[in-house]
Amino acid sequence: MNCKTFFSSFLCLLLFNFSSFCDSPKKISDGLNSLLNGPVLDSSGKEVSKDKLVGKTIGFYFSAQWCPPCRTFTPKLVDFRDANKKEFEVVFVSSDKGVKEQLEYMKETKMKWYTLPHRSVAANALAKKFEVRGIPSLVIVSANGKTITKDGRSQVSSNPKGAIKKWKESS
Description:
Strand order of the largest sheet: 5-4-3-6-7
Number of helices: 7
Radius of gyration: 20 Å
Number of strands: 7
Low-confidence stretches: 6-24
């Protein structure tokens, strides 16, 4: 095989592998998938692919419509998430009385993020895993599902411009 043929073959192989790499869909990490043990819903209650969370730092937000401190913090979190949505996403874990209240709360406070089904096995497992004792609570995990902090609420409140950077450094 001469040099020209070898180079042409090598270039074709390289382009084929690169194009298949580019075309392959990105999948959620096993660690994050194990935390989201069940369906993920959009803010209207429709099931969406968990792969929408790939590569993002995730905030599990434990909150409820009836909770006054939650109603104070939620607009801050909405602004924070909307300003950082390319690298940060929220998954709402509702403590509301029912699905209707959960979705109403999301709509009225402009939560354009994802949620778990109301009182689902996955939602209850997350509350237990992260030892949530009160709301609002914001637990931050890396794209691979590693817990970064259970104190996301105070970090978003006190350092909204630096929180993402701090979390990325910790992951």
